[in-house]
Amino acid sequence: MAQLDDELTSLTTTVASNTTVIASGAAMISGFSAQLAAAIAAAQAAGATPAQLSAVTDLQTALDTNNATLTAAIASNTPVATEIPPAQAQALARKIRG
């Protein structure tokens, strides 16, 4: 059982690391979008026209769309955590060990 515990601990660490990377990526995208929104608002307040800002607003729209798509894909492809029955856990451990 010690080897199984070690393998489960390693797998848990890997999943936690992946989760952190995914969350960081989503936060980065959202943060960049917020920065773009602030820059657009500042430019408009300084007198920039929608035509002058269209390239930037188009990028913000594309970024927001991509972020929504990524978020939806992650959510729809993340299984609900379930407890593995002991017999399945043992079979999985044997398979992992080869």
Structural summary, described in words:
The mean pLDDT is 84. Helices cover 85% and strands 0% of the residues. It is mainly alpha-helical. Helix 1 packs antiparallel against helix 2. The protein has a domain of 29 residues.
Structural class: mainly alpha
The counted number of beta strands is 0
Largest sheet descriptor: none
Tell me roughly what share of residues is in helical segments.
over 70%
Layout of helices and strands, plus pairs?
Layout lengths: L1 H44 L4 H27 L9 H12 L1
Helix pairs in contact: 1-2
Summarize the structure in short.
This protein is mostly helical and 98 residues long.
Which keywords apply here?
single chain; mainly alpha; 98 residues
